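Review form for a predicted model. The reviewer records the input and the model, then writes brief findings.
Reviewer: anonymous (R2)
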Amino acid sequence: MKVFFVPERREGASRWRAWLRRLRPRGARLFELLDRHAGLCNQAMQAMVKLLADPSDPDRKVREIEALEKRADAVVDEFGAALRPTWLPPFPAPLLLALVNEMDDIVDLAEDAAQSVHLYHVTRVTPEAVRLAELGAAGTETLRQALRALGRAEGLRPAAQLCREVDDIEAQADHVMRAAMARLFRDEADARELVKLKAVYELLEGLTDRCKDAAHRIESLVLKYGG
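Model under review:
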């Protein structure tokens, strides 16, 4: 008998959460903080695009990305503090914490990529590297739209669609990465430049992977708790 009752209770809890979300907005502060964090992720990626467009003087842009990463960390802390006293948050608290931490992985990796460009003294950037950064920026902006949709009771289906768009962006980045690596190993004669560019490519492609991870988290919330 217990085997049958547990799924029913879980289904009932999901329906109860969905009903409450429709009855009145819940966790508005939480979604405000998620939106702020997603905005910082996007700002970091836009700064990365500018850095790669002109890497001749990277100090200012790298410092800008580092500052954005620190601001994002502060938002994560604020999110945790806001989540703790929230009675019946819009989604289970552990899953919301996992989501904000996956978002934070994006800006952390953006900082790593910017610092690597600076520390490796990368002065010659390929169009493929810039394109990977642009796709990362597109991924973070689409994630931000998905999070805004997630905060609306009527926006769950649009949120899932936006998550699928993030998947498409990640797939584009995979194609760019493969072409970039093929060209790099075919045309680059300087072994040092090859090693540096390969490392930068991998970090930049990893940014779209992190966006995809966060999108999958949002999509799972929609599918499991959307009602």
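Findings: Residues 191-225 form the longest helix (35 residues).
Further findings: The radius of gyration is 20 Å.
Recommendation: see findings above.
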